[in-house]
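Forwarding the complex inputs:
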Amino acid sequence: MRVGVLGIGKTPHKIQHNKSLRDLIVEAGRTAISDAGVSPSDIQMLYVGNVGSVGFNYENSTGLMAAHHLGVVPAGAVRVEAACGTGAWALHLGVVAIASGLYDTVMVVGAEKMNDLATVEGTSVIAQAADSKEEYFSGLTFPSGVALTARKYMQTYGLTEEDLAHTSVKNHHYGARNPYAHLRFECTVEEVMRSAKVADPLKLYEVCPMTDAGSALVLCREEILKDQPDKPQVYITATAMASGTWYAVSDGLEDAHKLFAEPAAKAYAMAGVSAGDIDVAEIYNSFAIQEPLGIEGLGFAEQGKGWEGAADGSTWIDGKVAVNLSGGLLCKGHPLGATGSSQAVDIIEQLRGTAPEGIQRKDAAIGISACRGGPGAVGAIHIYQREG
Amino acid sequence: MRVGVLGIGKTPHKIQHNKSLRDLIVEAGRTAISDAGVSPSDIQMLYVGNVGSVGFNYENSTGLMAAHHLGVVPAGAVRVEAACGTGAWALHLGVVAIASGLYDTVMVVGAEKMNDLATVEGTSVIAQAADSKEEYFSGLTFPSGVALTARKYMQTYGLTEEDLAHTSVKNHHYGARNPYAHLRFECTVEEVMRSAKVADPLKLYEVCPMTDAGSALVLCREEILKDQPDKPQVYITATAMASGTWYAVSDGLEDAHKLFAEPAAKAYAMAGVSAGDIDVAEIYNSFAIQEPLGIEGLGFAEQGKGWEGAADGSTWIDGKVAVNLSGGLLCKGHPLGATGSSQAVDIIEQLRGTAPEGIQRKDAAIGISACRGGPGAVGAIHIYQREG
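Prediction (whole assembly, two chains):
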């Protein structure tokens, strides 16, 4: 399976009180259409990833709204939602649509406008993405649920809070160099340790901010991109989706590993590559602990060792595999429905060689994105390859 | 393109205070899995159509919840939403997934639990599926928006309120015979005319009720069904999705016709059939006026003549094409996310010859479902054919 990436677009990741959800969709979408060199009427299908527009923005049917405002009518248009895996799901559906042979050119947009509400209200909207009937009403929000996972990891593998802090240091090193990132400052292990406790053992610098953003891709049949050799030759060569446990409190470490390991194995087979071939990876880290978990799930490190790369340099820009050169969700922010598509756009920029100065991996040719959703409910893997 | 229908399931359509959204999903889904003769672990992907769980039920991520409670983990799972076209979109994605060759067996579920709220609150949730920022805040709900379309149709084609009333008479004739329908009583033209005005010119018997229900399908590669000749040989042979105008007030009749006519033309070409070949049709009619509009869009009648079949018998059970033998949304109700999948299940029962007594079309071999969404924002066509 090979699906061409004809165009990409994204908005800055930040608090954007001056822009509505539809503004973000239009800005990211039009950039991608322009980058693709197509007209809106060339788009045959539109897949929009958005998690919380009903809760955040008092509107639904974001896919249909997007079709109208992007001018792609009468293309079919739909909103898809799978907690924090939403943007990756929109991408998956676009890839499968092209792979089916039924469509030539389709569009994927992920967008979220989180800051219409106060943070405490927003946390409540987000909590609906997990089990709102049993867990949330018992007091379990996402920060407190993931904190349980972090504690379990620390107990199981002997990880200290200082060990984990290196992950935030690395992300902030690159986030500071990414003009599209929400949080743009560097920090030290000591500063991570001193930052306020959010949900013990997770501290403020180990938690993503609430961010408004959109990102978009135009995908096409392999031949369409091949016939335009002047365009960057980047293809999506694997897509694999999995679901896992729905409950935070039963999300053991084995489940957390499997959530990425199983679809990653399928994706590597589909693309014909192995973990050792990957140059750049964007790995879901709305909370710092999820980065080592993801590194292990993708096969870049043994279980319990995923945190070491941030400390010893092997997951930095010149390391064995560069992880989260965008600054990750910790710095880029986590605009729920836009996160999966944003990971894709960032990897594609790496493979095109157009990433900002200071975060471009030299000669990046093979990339992977890994998106989680829910406590441990979505594992979404995509592999990208540059040709020539 | 040929996709096998391995199993179907549905819950009754009615107000179900004793069941939650997840109960409806599990009931419909398990019935379909059982009918398919597969185990949950055979399901590779799950597409859940649900419009309003955040507004109606204070929960999100219905796809992930469904995967957990149906026991199909680690299959990929997602919720899709496109206003009232939601269930048809879930079906489309399942069909495309099989057509892509990437999956052997997938599952589609549509479900909505609308009656956790009072009707007036529910109407507000529904209104978010159209333009909540400009139209709804100006007072335009779905009933009032569609009433404008009805008035325009009446003015353009000289349709009287008595003419239109025949559509409700036909739907209620069959709805009374469908044990799964919400409203099970017959009515006369006079009774339709005497029923309370909801939004002039639409009256109570021309408006669907608020209904709780779920419906589900298990789809498979053509060969898998062919290899089980004892199972009913029903295949989905076409899927076509379109979007239209996002605004109710600009939804002219030409747009309303095109919304079905364009994807229907594609679907007929894909299946290699024409309008005249269709035995049974389920056509979206949350409001009575949408049935003649749909009949015209599908090519069963000229523009302005779509209402005649309900009066002269040609869209009744023994007519040229039997339309809405289920009782349509007017009687079956319109459980938003379940409506598209319910239309599919009802057509498949017709082709299997297992529809309830009094609503089974004799020797039905080719069927079509046509689902709308938003004021005029989704047109979704599927064609079904029986073999042998």
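The first helix of chain B runs from residue 21 to 36.
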